[in-house]
Amino acid sequence: MDSQNGTEGITFILLGLSQYPWAQTINFRLLLMSYVITVFGNSLILLLIYYDPRLHMPMYYFLSNLSFLDMCYTTSSVPQMLINCLVTISVISLGQRFAQMAVGLYLGVVECLLLAAMAYDRCVAIVDPLHYSVHMRPQLCVLLAETSWTAAFLLTVVLVLTMPLEFCGHHVINHFSCELLALLKLACSDLRFYELLMLGTSALTLPAPFAFILGSYGRILVAVLRMRSMEGCGKAFSTCGSRLTVVALVYSTAISMYMMPQDKTIHDRDKIISISNSVLTPMMDPLIYSLRNKDMKGAFTRLMGKKIDL
Hints:
Oligomer: single chain
CATH topology: Rhopdopsin 7-helix transmembrane proteins
CATH class: Mainly Alpha
Largest sheet: 3 strands, mixed
């Protein structure tokens, strides 16, 4: 179907790994295992934070937002990937593709902004612990979280409403899921204005928050180096190091996708980045941010104790 026929009735074929049947089975098992771990881990975090009053603090409020986000983010793409592994040819309509693309884009932007808010929270907690409760008031925490979700929604609406809708040539996409860049590679329209718009919105959601996070952790590093307790320094370095690893993974992959020159071909690198963002990061977040935490372990023990008593 060429562009003159319009967009009505357009369908797309997602190749995924269909050209490698032996890899489809392996990919299905790995994706399913990762999805179950992600949903279970983040659900457990939300349950513990909800039921344990000791976790009703700014840090865990942001963590609950991140856990909910991770479950939504991975659910927006992984089930489609699992289906693709079970069928010979995966067909998706233009409307379904736009819906999945918009949801994935929105949640990805929320994550970038929310990670910056979490970095600010940790910076205040370590750099100025005596005034932490004054700076991180409940009203400010709610405002930061709501701003992340609302600003991401507005930016996503702008990108979706201005996206070109003319497609030409074949509608076969060498990808696992519905992503903005994968769809743009099939567009026949002049993309110069849209690419400039994408670059501007990406600058607001990628390098700016990333620079803020690096600055926050830089201040944390200075404060940690002033600690007299070697044990405290070791714990702080371990925690900050693991969090920075996840943050660097999220922002570096997103920047390489949305702020670097693109061609019309979907490379294997794009598939790997997609898997990293939609599968690996949501699965790692519970371990990195919460489940190794002493407070979370205590909350889990108390919850299990209540269940046994009942």
